[in-house]
Amino acid sequence: MIKSLITGIKQKADFVVGKVCPKYRIHRDLCSLCSTLYTKGLISCTDGNLSTRLDDQKILITPKFQNKSKLQPSDLVEYNLHDKTRPKNVTSEASLHTLAYLRRKDISFVLHTHPLYTTTMSISHPELIGRPYFPTSVLLLGKVPIVPYYPPGSEELARACADALADSNVAILKGHGAVVVGKSILQIQTRTEHLEWNSRAIYLMKNANSPTLTEEEVKQLESRSRSLGVLDGAWGWKKHDFIK
């Protein structure tokens, strides 16, 4: 008991401002991203959750019911991906993160947010979000699947989201928010922010007959994106996604 107490005190000391141990730098970076997302309005107070893969077994994830704008490194929770039981203070969407990591061995981060335009457009105009209107969206996002509604925190939602992310880096949860995955904090932040930009732009346009990029233009962007290493997910647009 004394040994564990001393260990806990040492870990707390590592989080003192200006004395962040390299081992815990990722904790600080996750908290910083949460604060940024809150400032940009992509999450609000206790909304959303974020995690990173520590190794083949463990992930580090945000806790439940805590203000994301004031999150501290010591608030983050570690747990084993293969354990059936999880810490009581882990986010209610832990299964969503777990299944995403188990499905995608190539990713290091999972981010779930509640962006306003993306969430509302997933209900009011879901057929528009998936269309390739803007070249930057094609480059950064690829084809964005919309996951049907399932109760938040449910195993059904976690499985459906993992299926959607099997060949995509971005998924929209109908009426609920968005989930992005990536290999770095920069990737998941970029994808999240641009997804909301894309949704807002489509909302302002809000015309089902507005012309999209052509199939040939999308193919050129796909080739360009892969050569730059910008997009490593799927494309998969259908004929009905293109409007002349």
Automatic annotation (TrEMBL):
Residue intervals of the Class II aldolase/adducin N-terminal domain? 28-203
Offer one Pfam family short name for this entry.
Answer: Aldolase_II
User: What are the protein's GO molecular function terms?
Assistant: aldehyde-lyase activity; metal ion binding
Keywords for the protein's UniProt record, in alphabetical order: Lyase, Metal-binding
Q: Spell out the SUPFAM superfamilies in the cross-references.
A: AraD/HMP-PK domain-like
What's one GO BP annotation on this UniProt entry?
pentose catabolic process
User: Does the keyword field hold ATP-binding?
Assistant: no
Q: Which domain of life is it from?
A: Eukaryota
Q: Name one GO cellular component term.
A: cytosol
Instruction: Note the InterPro entries from the entry.
Output: Aldolase_class_II_sugar_metab (IPR050197), Aldolase_II/adducin_N (IPR001303), Aldolase_II/adducin_N_sf (IPR036409)
Per its record, how is this protein called by name? 3-oxo-tetronate 4-phosphate decarboxylase-related
Q: Which organism is it from?
A: Anaeramoeba flamelloides
